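Discussion board: Methods & Data

I've been asked by a reviewer to show the raw model output for two of the constructs in my manuscript, not just the figures. I'm not sure how much to include, so I'm pasting the format here to get opinions. Each protein appears as its amino acid sequence followed by a line of discrete structure tokens. Is this the kind of thing reviewers expect to see in a supplement, or should I convert it first? Here is construct A:
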Amino acid sequence: MAVIQQNKLKVRPVMDYWELNQFVSSDTADVNVCSTNLRNWKKLGENFEIIDLKKAYLQIRVDEALWKYEVVEHEGQRYCLTRLGFGLNVAPRIITKILKKVLSLDKVVESGTDSFIDDIIVNNNIVSSCRVQELLKKYGLDYKLPEKLVGQRELGLRVYKQNNQVRRKRDNIPKVSEGKMARRQIFSWCGQLTGHFPIANWLRLSCSYLKRVSSSCGWDTLVNDRIVKLVSSLNERLTKEDAVYGSWNVKNTSEATVWCDASSLAVGIILEVAGEIVEDCSWLRKQDGAAHINLAELEAVIKGINLATKWGFECITIKRDSATVVGWLKSLIIGDKPIRVHGLGEPLVRRRLSLIEDLVKECGIQLKLFLVITAENKADALTRVPQNWLHSNHSAMTANLVPPDVKSFHNFHHFGVNRTLYLMKQTYPKKNVCRKDIESVVKSCERCLSVNPAPIRWEEGNLVVGKSWYRLGTA
């Protein structure tokens, strides 16, 4: 079928390879990762060009013995496809292998180039574009003319120059259908919004949360009105402020700053180099998780160090707003006083601290720590969604929680919130059980309120009696 590519308004012939792909084994251990290529390319500066292959897949000829697997029937006639099909699951890997093999035949070209599928980036400080073109032509690969990066679209990002700085932004904002939509459409739209972009700020967590609240529906089932309102709210904010932007070039230095934060909802980190944000990440925490917030704060530090090591930074400054975690880390790095941890979560805290210590020693990292206030923490926005999203989520889940009936279930045993939540999830694994519903039931249960210590304080009275042995007690 013919599909219109929205960002270029070109008609692309697309074939359904679903059945054939089931019989083709595609290993992905050594495939190119887009985010890794972006990190490498952003360190090259401005003196490089892009060479794109012309109709890359159609340049790859298929052996005649394999023609029978790509047969198209049109108007009673059968046609064998003699070129590599776009929808084949191994097609990107095949073109990547071929291109890398050709570039490796010249050692100078290999050292000054990098490729992602059919895009070749040429570092003009090492090799000229003419030499790369001659090599491609020698081995029968047709290509487009080299283009400077500025003003072009590369890996979904539009690169432009502003105030003598090379910056990047989203090439186009994906559109969302109005009215009712299925879960499959929501996941597809959210994937296009964040994708492989290194910076997405608040948008990344909003998309993850939107996918979480819609995950209870079937893939092709229409979602309810509440989720439609969330989609509309996100789309409205997106049209006003797109979070995908930033500087293209990354300063060649060994120092970086990592902003970390965690909340009951998510964990967020920001990597900053020379005052410019180069990458951010955020992850939703486990729903109704009972882990202490300090564990999430330590996990944010670990994720931040891992991100910085992917860029190759050795001197890392950690900035966060948790005095407890900063105190633990200072005791760990400086070693001037023992690390004091109390409570049932002590083994979990020490396990994460030992992991941080191993990362610092094995990777040769110089770690600096700073305590900042929450208002100045740049990663704080990556751990939050609009407050009305959370309220609407609770009210919707409360209305749909029949069966099971939380109050009737609680009356069987009168356990606390955590135990009741655990038992309900074991008893009704396919039902949505909300922690806030259980909390409201436990707080309003008269039998639970009579247990000592009670969650609420009764009015103070006087137990003095006039004579001995006339005091009345209840058990």
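Construct B, same format:
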Amino acid sequence: MNLVCELPMGISENEAKLFLAIKLYEINKISLGKAARLAGYSKSAFIEVLGQYKIPIFNYSPEELREEVITQLSKADN
């Protein structure tokens, strides 16, 4: 699908793609990999950009995070 829109002065096509990718990733509409591709970045570079905008790359609830930490610690013990 193609989208055609007129961008405001001062916003480049690359910036618009980046901001769209960030927002779609932030609201869980696309994966990290797809967002990076949409923005024209590698995954690692896109992760750095997310950090600059204070967007977490992990979206865990406190309980999910606790469970994940416990799971990973038990794997490390084995």
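Answer (T.O., handling editor elsewhere):
This is acceptable in a supplement if you add a one-line summary per construct. For B, something like: The mean pLDDT is 91.
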